[in-house]
Amino acid sequence: MLRQELDYVILSKNDIMITYLKDGETSNNFHLSDVSYSERYGNNYIVGYCTEWEKELTFKVEKITFIELEWFELFGKSVSFMRGLHLLAIRGDNHVAFELRQYKEADWSIRLCETLCHDDEVLATHFIPYYDEDTKEKWTRIDNSDKMLHDAIYTFAYKVSNDEELKEDDEVYHISLRNSVKHNGIYYACAFIRSRTTIGELRIPTNVEFIAYNRCRYYTDNDQSKHWELAKKLGLI
């Protein structure tokens, strides 16, 4: 499973946080970007730019005990969005806002250009694959109403009974389902959850069946500060 996650991270160009068991006893967390397998040591090692140490570091794969997908910093780069869902962290006057979009092969390059031409408003993106048999390991199945949610952005995959039209007032945790995106009969919507709550407390409409969720930590004001510091180091501003 760890190897599959690393393959996915390298393909999707996501930033990650890893927990690394350096000496068999002590675990440390490292935030990494530009992750790849090591050209020098082979695919049993990864290399990545570490924001804490401000340099590229090498890690042995078998000593990595945990991986969490994080945010991919855009910096106005020329990048191709993978086909699927993308959470965008958008710079506001005094806050960071979030928006869920889907990019299809036919229109991603156009939308990407539009996204990056608004005075660097889009700071980072978090990629989420569509929910299906091939990608379900990237999602957490919703198997009971007591599952606890807390302090993160949750993208829910759900179905609507008989694919009927959602009502204007259909919402989950104050997020209108009318703003959902749809792909192959499955809808996707985000909920921004700060306080501890359960699936059963989300006020899911009776005609809606939640299947699974993808959890992503918030892109914070501190992340935004690091974003500009790294942009300066890269000579972009």
Word description of this protein:
By secondary structure, the chain is mainly beta. It has 3 domains: 2-69, SH3 type barrels; 72-127 and 220-232, no CATH class; 136-216, no CATH class. The chain contains 3 helices and 18 strands. The protein has helices at 2-12, 108-115, 221-233; strands spanning 16-21, 27-38, 42-50, 55-60, 64-69, 72-73, 84-91, 96-103, 122-128, 140-141, 148-149, 152-160, 171-172, 175-176, 181-183, 186-193, 197-198, 208-216. The strands form 5 sheets. Strands 4-3-2-1-5 form a 5-stranded antiparallel beta sheet, with helices on one face. A 5-stranded antiparallel beta sheet has the order 10-18-12-16-15, with no helix packed on it. Strands 6-9-7-8 form a 4-stranded antiparallel beta sheet, sandwiched between helices. A hairpin with a 5-residue loop joins β1 (16-21) and β2 (27-38). Mean pLDDT is 79; it is low at 106-113 and 115-119.
